Amino acid sequence: GEDVEQSLFLSVREGDSSVINCTYTDSSSTYLYWYKQEPGAGLQLLTYIFSNMDMKQDQRLTVLLNKKDKHLSLRIADTQTGDSAIYFCAESTAGTYKYIFGTGTRLKVLA
Amino acid sequence: EAQVTQNPRYLITVTGKKLTVTCSQNMNHEYMSWYRQDPGLGLRQIYYSMNVEVTDKGDVPEGYKVSRKEKRNFPLILESPSPNQTSLYFCASSLGTKNEQFFGPGTRLTVL
User: Fold this and answer.
1) Element holding B91 (H helix, E strand)
2) What is the pLDDT of residues B28-74, one digit of tens each?
3) Which of B32, B33, B43, B55 to mutate: most A Cβ within 10 Å?
4) For residue B54, what pLDDT is reported?
5) Is A1 in contact with B31 (Cβ distance < 8 A)?
6) % of chain A with per-residue pLDDT over 70
7) Cβ-count burial of B4 within 10 angstroms (0-12 exposed, 13-18 middle, 19+ buried)?
8) Helix or strand or coil: residue B85?
9) Second label for A32, Cα 20 to 30 Å away, from A66, A95, B19, B64?
């Protein structure tokens, strides 16, 4: 079945850039998302990208999509301590109602 | 305020005792979904609903039931809970699958 994989942990220093990676297996994925989960809370959508796009930038966030390699990345510029959280990659396909989430990457920002 | 609410937030129960976790949204969303979150496994979809009286299985539906009698409510029912259903459960809603999902605050369930 479809699968979405992420590395479990990432640690960066405050002010550096963070890059969180995700790979997926479903070549028919239409929408790819990044969600953020802060401690004790639900998930919040950070950004999303359509599969016909290569890149999307939104303030400090840059999403890159390599559809050939089925690889998605989220770059956070000037990472702050408030960015410490779990980041989930997710995908869905037009015409279906199923979402597949990755395992989540725990980002720790060191002051 | 637009939100998804879940009740209860925390629940400790025993094996076999039927329970219901409620989920309600006030955004008139057609799509609702239940997930469970387990360490190292991320979020896995249990059931989803495309509209009133329309539901379908996600990736891990065994041991769960749902119903969608009204647009705003989507309860999750565990008829006979078992310890392997100990988890953190999230309800979510959206206008459709290409739209942002809004998540509830989560329900932490422990089955002894």
Assistant:
1) strand B87-94
2) 999 999 999 998 888 999 999 999 999 999 999 999 999 999 999 99
3) B43
4) 93
5) no
6) 99
7) buried
8) helix
9) B64
